[in-house]
TrEMBL record:
Residue ranges of domain C-type lysozyme inhibitor in the record: 62-128
Family matches, as InterPro entries: MliC (IPR018660), MliC_sf (IPR036328)
Organism lineage: Bacteria, Pseudomonadati, Pseudomonadota, Alphaproteobacteria, Hyphomicrobiales
Name the record gives this protein: Membrane-bound inhibitor of C-type lysozyme
Keyword annotations: Lipoprotein, Membrane, Palmitate, Signal
Domain of life of the source: Bacteria
Length: 143
């Protein structure tokens, strides 16, 4: 079993804070590193994730319909699957939730749902028929 401690670093005024991963057992070099930007104070949080296999981290850039760009981090550590999504100047850690298709992540009042390169960000406290906060398309790096 792979075990990794993920250090979430938050530094005042930093768009992306410094982060590190401390390995307790053997883990691949691609083990998760997940920065989180804090709104007004310095803080750090260490989360230990045990995985039945390798821990994978990827970053996917998105272009949204309103012109904003998002960079979403995904951490896959079976059975834990996380997305770190920037919302209102803060990076929110979201966990997977049941979905009929695609990958659905929830954290606090927010839902990030991806399917075939398309993604939506919703505020679950709004009416069910409310427009998404963001509708985005993954940016492919392949020519």
């Amino acid at each position: 079993m792979t075990k990794a401690k993920i250090l979430f670093g938050a530094v005042l005024g930093a768009a992306l804070a410094t982060s590190a991963v401390a390995q307790e057992d053997v883990a691949p070099p691609s083990a998760a590193v997940a920065p989180v930007a804090g709104p007004s104070t310095s803080a750090s949080l260490v989360i230990t994730i045990e995985s039945a296999g390798d821990i994978e981290r990827s970053v996917t850039p998105y272009q949204c319909d309103d012109g904003q760009s998002l960079s979403v981090q995904y951490i896959n550590a079976v059975p834990n699957f996380l997305a770190i999504v920037p919302v209102d100047g803060q990076n929110l850690v979201m966990a997977t939730a049941l979905s009929a298709s695609g990958a659905r992540y929830v954290g606090g009042p927010y839902e990030w749902w991806t399917h075939q390169g398309e993604a939506t960000l919703r505020d679950l406290t709004q009416d069910e028929d409310a427009e998404p906060l963001a509708t985005c398309t993954a940016i492919s790096n392949t020519p």
